Amino acid sequence: MSERRGGEKTLEEVKKKVMERVEEVLPSDVVVTDVDFEGPEVVLYTNSPHSFVKDDSDLVTRLAKALRKRVKIRPNPAALSPAKEAKKVILKIIPEEAGVSERDLLFLDTGEVVIFSKKPGLVIGKRGKNVHRISRDTGWVPRIYRQPPIPSKTVNTTRRLILSDDSRRKFLRNVSARIFCGRTRSRGTESRWARVSALGGFQEVGRSSLFLHTEESRVLLDCGVNVAANGTDAYPHFNVPEFRMDDLDAIVITHAHLDHCGFLPYFYRHKVIESRVPVYCTPPTRDLMYLLLTDYIKVLEKRGQEPPYTEKDVKKVIKRTITIDYREPTDITPDMSITFYNAGHILGSASVHVFLQDKGHNFVYTGDINPTPSRLLEGADNRFKRVDSMVVEATYGDSRHGSRRKEENRFRKIVRDTLKKGGKVLIPSFAVGRAQEVMLVLEDMHRKDELEGPVYLDGMIYEATAIHTAYPEYLNRRLQHRILHEDDDPFTSEVFEPVEGSDHRQAIMEDDEPAVILSTSGMLEGGPILEYLRELSDDPKNTLIFVGYQAEGTLGRQIQEGAKEVPLPTPTGKTETLRIELRVETVSGFSGHGDKIELTKYVRSIRPSPPSKVFTNHGEPRACKYFSNHLRRTVRKVFSMAPENLECFRLT
């Protein structure tokens, strides 16, 4: 293959090479008519797409292995049945019980047909039989989306933004050019070093952001805000000399909490970023990001603060996402590939394994992790291909949670006792993660007749829960089985009642009947929870239960530490003093973070072996330093340190 200076190639040159390799791998009766590129994927066009999707075919796997790239199969346009005819054939193939009608079919100009169904398994058929028949009889390649049992505006919006984006193909081709066409900065030579700059979230909780850079590549890992801070302290240190926004190749987001993605849309106000820089995350993270980012704008506006971006910028982010499932290796630059692993923190949360190809170095950024299985999720996965260095979170690196089972039993007792006295249980919670964990316990109590009263869901919790129902494959195996095989989704239980607005909320507060109220925000920094607190705080019969982390400086932290009088903003913008007379409890069993013992076990038991270098982050200074020293003492042959923001450390 001819190369230009510095090892650069054109996509046409790469295409020719790919076609040669494809012809070597495929049997003679399967013909690929064209090759294209979409982001990190090689797209192969064929007259017989059904040959690739039948149940006994391993052709896609063989091609991906030979090309060392993700591979997507598309039909040659000439092989497609007219959409009107294909629609009739598809509806005849799909069983009636799948509940698919004409309006659930969307034909794309890529030769794919999107099929929306509440029961995707029935659409796919046993061993993919229906998918194969659709492809064989119509030429169209099915792409199946689950319709959540709880209707979700967010899921509908993100899917529409992706499917209707006319600029997406051009954008993906720009991404492909960067990944496939060789080195542009190191001019064909190997990168001799790799470094991480700590831009935020080191010896603090909030504004998490790491800048991973080699001679060839510039990648941002997370891009968060500190919701409890003001001014520039709320955002990462993007003014360091080594970081230039226009030089970025990719942004990787571990999960949807604002302290990891809250500043992301600001970047997409800039045309250079919008035109060629992708955001890599899991599918649930993409949807949850849209929900939380648009809400963050509203929260800032209510506080009288100007948001750093608009809802239009959030939509740009969604249009520029490339989603990756767990354990799916993906090239993101000429010398870096990433693989996501379940982090056990919230729906779709991921630890990022980065393979630095030139040095053969394996780096893992854990993001926020919970190594212990919960009612909602499996524990964090620590079975990697290899790990040489790691940045690990230390939120609770200096403390213990106590037994999760005991804490859950204590939670149940607090709820029962409060309701029996005729009081209300007020639970401030993050909309994503903690809320669903608590809901599963409350639903279990309801099934066992332990709950005397309804459970009201306020703020974004109901919508966030709807997103959970769209992705049962990301939940733990027991919950998956219950939803997919027993047709019993606990999130749709009759005990849960969404709060419809301010009038409904006021009626709940004025009602003398006992009830549980689950509402945002988790740290009492805004949201409907403040209205409930204002009305219910003066009655000792009521109970406030903290189930998540309360950051330093937040109202939640003040009350948790025993303050009996706290300042509370009023709807008119003034501040009033609120007396705290209700019972206050903290239950740590719902945490989405591992404690000192769980995190130590996680690092020590990493497979195939623990890393030789460990850097701690995402914890207050004492927690990060303590956990770093603890690892040095307890994990064999590990060098560990607790960097501060603005420090830069070398990986290779």
Any key phrases for this structure?
652 residues, alpha/beta, GMP Synthetase, Chain A, domain 3, Metallo-beta-lactamase, Chain A, 7-stranded mixed beta sheet, 22 helices, 33% helix, globular, disordered N terminus
CATH superfamily of the largest domain, called what? Ribonuclease Z/Hydroxyacylglutathione hydrolase-like
Helical/strand content category: alpha/beta
Q: So what's the overall shape?
A: globular
What is CATH's topology name of the largest domain?
Metallo-beta-lactamase, Chain A
Count of distinct structural domains = 4
Head-to-tail CA distance between termini: 31 Å
Mean pLDDT: 94
Name of the CATH architecture of the largest domain: 4-Layer Sandwich
The number of helical segments is 22
Report the β-strand fraction as a percent range. Answer: 15-25%
Number of strands: 28
Helix content: 25-40%
InterPro entries: aCPSF1 (IPR019975), Beta_Casp (IPR022712), KH_dom-like_a/b (IPR015946), KH_sf_prok-type (IPR009019), MBL (IPR050698), Metallo-B-lactamas (IPR001279), RibonucZ/Hydroxyglut_hydro (IPR036866), RMMBL (IPR011108)
GO molecular function, one term: RNA endonuclease activity
EC number: 3.1.-.-
Cofactor: Zn(2+)
